Amino acid sequence: NGPHKGPLIHAAVVEGAGFLVADGPADLDEIEAASREAGRSARILLRVNPDCVPKGMNRATATGSRKHSVFGFDLRSGEVEIALKRVASSPHLAYAGLHCHVGTGIRRAEDYRRPLTLLVDCAARAQRLGLPAGVLDVGGGFGVATSREFETMEFLAYQALGRLPRAPDPE
């Protein structure tokens, strides 16, 4: 999972990695080519970008936003549907399920509700194409009370002046 997999894709296919996460169309191309070359199928998770930014999160670091993140197949443009159909027709791609990453440092459990609902809807679409989802992987993580994300101006002040922002309120 993650960006810039490069030659790791081929090694993962050859070694029979548990899953490869296709973070977008280019990853899917590379995984399929490596699988074809290796003469075996690769078990994959498709990363869906839910286009959700949790409340209070700095949009520049939100991995679940289409505006600021290159990760994941886009729901609105139809990339998810195209990818599912491609996987269903490929002898080199073994669909294992779906993945999404909402962000890091999330404070409220309800910020996962919409992404989870969208992921379940994508799983239903996959099921209709004969692709049962064995895995629904929801990435991201809950923040702790003693840490928080920099606000945009705080980040710029830190970058330009080396000035640290105020400490988080543990309450």
Number of strands: 5
Secondary-structure class? alpha/beta
Helix content: 25-40%
- What value does the Rg take, in angstroms? 18 Å
In terms of DSSP E residues, the strand content is 15-25%
What does this structure look like?
By secondary structure, the protein is of the alpha/beta class. Helices cover 35% and strands 16% of the residues. Strands 1, 2, 3, 4 and 5 form a five-stranded parallel sheet that branches. Helix 1 packs across helix 2. The longest helix has 16 residues, at 113-128. The protein starts with 7 loop residues before the first helix and ends in a 10-residue tail after the last helix. The mean pLDDT is 84.
Q: What can be said about this structure in brief?
A:
This protein has helices at residues 8-15, 25-38, 79-89, 113-128, 152-161, and strands spanning 20-22, 42-49, 73-74, 93-101, 135-139. By secondary structure, the chain is of the alpha/beta class.
